[in-house]
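Q: I have 189 residues here and want to know how they pack in 3D. Can you give me a structure?
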Amino acid sequence: MITQNKRGAMELSMSTIVILVLAMSMLILGLVLIKTIFSGAKYNVDTMNTKVQNEINKLFVEDKKIVVYLAGGEAKVNKGDSYGVAFGLKNLITGTPDASKFTYDVSVANPTEVKSNCGINEKEALSWIKTGVSGTFQILPGETVANTATIIKFQIPQTAPLCIIRYNINVKANGEFYTADSFDINIAA
């Protein structure tokens, strides 16, 4: 009987070893899979950022100071969704080799029209902007800035009315008016 107990103990320990080896193999394969997925996702995000920057740079013409990257100047956003509006700035200030300080702020272009058509005030329309309502850049003459810092991120609430709101991007260079552009947010169901 003693030999049978040793044999059973040997089988139990062999089963334990096999289970541990399989568990470690599954853990390693899982970690490799997760690393592959996150590496691919990071690559895709970096590629998209680069492509958006390239598209914005293509939109600049010789005398264009600001470019808003939206087809037709309008973004259709569903209630409850978030959306980013990308723009780029180009320093066309001459006479100095130094970088100029650019500041921008986003405002509602037509507050009285928004109040009458949408039933909301300017403050509420601006509260939908979660990042990028204002910013500051140092840009060398002839250079452009078009990166993740120039994205105005909107989060449209579920309670938003179905309407179109025009927003302005007002840009100052060294404290003086430089340029402005506008875009529309079309809120859909």
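Q: Anything worth noting?
A: The CA atoms of residues 148 and 174 lie 22 Å apart. The mean pLDDT is 84.
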